[in-house]
Fold this sequence. Notes:
By secondary structure, this protein is α+β, with helices and mostly antiparallel strands. It has a single domain, classed as CATH 2.40.50.180. Helix content is 19%, strand content 44%. The chain contains three helices and eleven strands; from the N terminus they run H-E-E-E-E-E-H-E-E-E-E-E-E-H. Strand 1 and strand 2 (24-29) form a beta hairpin. It is globular.
Amino acid sequence: xxxxxxxxxxxxxxxxxxxxxxxxxxxxxxxxxxxxxxxxxxxxxxxxxxxxxxxxxxxxxxxxxxxxxxxxxxxxxxxxxxxxxxxxxxxxxxxxxxxxxxxxxxxxxxxxxxxxxxxxxxxxxxxxxxxxxxxxxxxxxxxxxxxxxxxxxxxxxxxx
Length: 160
């Protein structure tokens, strides 16, 4: 890898998709994002946690779908024309993340973000790995590993 390739890779790693949940901006590294789609019919699957809305069939691929509001312990709302599903992939697992609205793609360099301590309370997961402030707006940077951890359990259950 030459110096130019390394600079390009670093710039791509610094791109984040910003979306809104309950009027708060969240950021997720673009390297995890496959695509953004409009709401599709969701097939409910019994015995999943309440925040898991079910599964969708996206071009013959079955993808579990999670409501981000419910995953973050917020009250659900009626979906509207701005509600969408962000398809993310991490370690070979795909999941759809239902968000209130997608906002923008921004560049967050390491010096523009502050890491958060991962003090995990017993029984609670911490999905936030950092915070950034750009143009006087705060974005909570999500930890994709923690967010999609549930997918492994679901896939194991489906494939048994």
